Amino acid sequence: MASRKGNSYTSGSSSTNKRVVNAKIRCDCGREALIKTVRNGPNMGMKFYGCPLWPDTQCEFFKWVNEHTDLEEQQMKLLEKDTIILEIEVEQKIRDEKIKKLQLKKGNLEEELKDMKNEVFQMKSEIMDCSRNEKNLYMALFISWLLFVVVYLS
User: Fold this and answer.
1) Which superkingdom, per the lineage (predicted)?
2) How far apart are CA 31 and CA 122, in angstroms?
3) 153: three-class secondary structure by DSSP
4) Contact 39/12 with Cβ under 8 angstroms?
């Protein structure tokens, strides 16, 4: 809120007064702000919102009128929102691709784990077979030595 004392702002003094009531913007004292025009100085011709009672009030409400119309402003906001949505969609696509890659990798790892479990089961079976074969060989060796002793002693 800039102070207007010492600044050269006027509301126009021609028969077609350029002061327009804007129902959307209210000044600090609660009244509907007027659109006024700077009459001299470096900002000459620029429009601003001001209190309708100024300079006969302590209210020093001041706000520049936006160069854009409400439609342009809404279009700009819509464009910003669309841009944000597109950025979010791109990020989501990237996440989806990463998820697909991770799911594929998970599937491959699950297959590898399944294969490894099968290999471990086969190795356990082979170890058990080898253990049985070893016992059978020890038994055969024992019987052959026993037979040898019986034949040798007879």
Assistant:
1) Eukaryota
2) 89
3) helix
4) yes
Beta bridge mates, 48: 36, 64
Name the token pair of 62: 């001041």
Tokens of 12: 């126009």
Kindly report, residue by residue over 15-49, the tens digit of the pLDDT.
333 444 444 678 888 888 888 888 888 888 888 88
3-state class (DSSP) for residue 28:
coil
Q: Which of 59, 61, 29 is nearest to 48 (CA)?
A: 61
Residue 24 is given by DSSP the state E
pTM more than 0.70:
no
CA dist 83 and 80 (Å) reads: 5
Sheet containing 47-50: order of strands: 20-26, 32-37, 47-50, 62-64
Average pLDDT value for the chain: 80
Q: How many Cα atoms sit within 13 Å of 13 on the Cβ side? A: 3
Beta-strand ranges (E) seen in the chain are 20-26, 32-37, 47-50, 62-64
